[in-house]
Amino acid sequence: MKSAKPTLANRKPLRAAKAPSQQAIVRAVASSTAIETGKSIRQIEKSLLGKNPKLRGIALAN
Question: What does the alpha-carbon distance between residue 49 and residue 56 come to, in Å, rounded to a whole number?
Answer without folding.
Answer: 6
